[in-house]
Structure formats: structure tokens, C-alpha cells
Amino acid sequence: MQALGLVEGEDVLNNAMVMAGAVVISAPILVFFAFAQRQFMQGIERSGITGE
Asked: How is residue 49 annotated by DSSP?
């Protein structure tokens, strides 16, 4: 959370800016996972991991 702390200014925390920063940081990761989920699952299926 160090990077999100940089949006603070003089002991005043703007919650809207912190939340906007968190969304901007996490959105690309979630979008990538949504598109790559099929390939992740196919890789697990091909590896033969049974979960036992």
C-alpha cells in the first residue's frame, strides 16, 4: 500500500483518490485474468493434476 500512500497530502487522506487509484491498479490484472482464464484452466487440465 506504499504507492497508494503517495496520494496523501499533508496528513489529509482523500478516500476517493485512494479508491480510484486502487481500481486503476487492479483493473488491468482482472481484465487479463478474465481473458486468460480459459488458457489457465486448459493448462491445469493438461498437466494431469488431480487434486488428491
From this structure: -
The 8 Å CB, 24+ separation contacts for 43-51 are none
- What is the pTM (predicted TM-score) of this model? 0.51
Q: pLDDT of 10-33, one tens digit each?
A: 566 788 888 999 999 999 999 999
What DSSP element (H or E) covers 3?
A: helix 2-5
What the block records as the C-alpha cell of 24 is 486503476
8 A C-beta contact, residue 23 and residue 30: no
Instruction: State how far Cα 16 lies from the chain centre.
Output: 18
For the chain, domain boundaries: 2-47
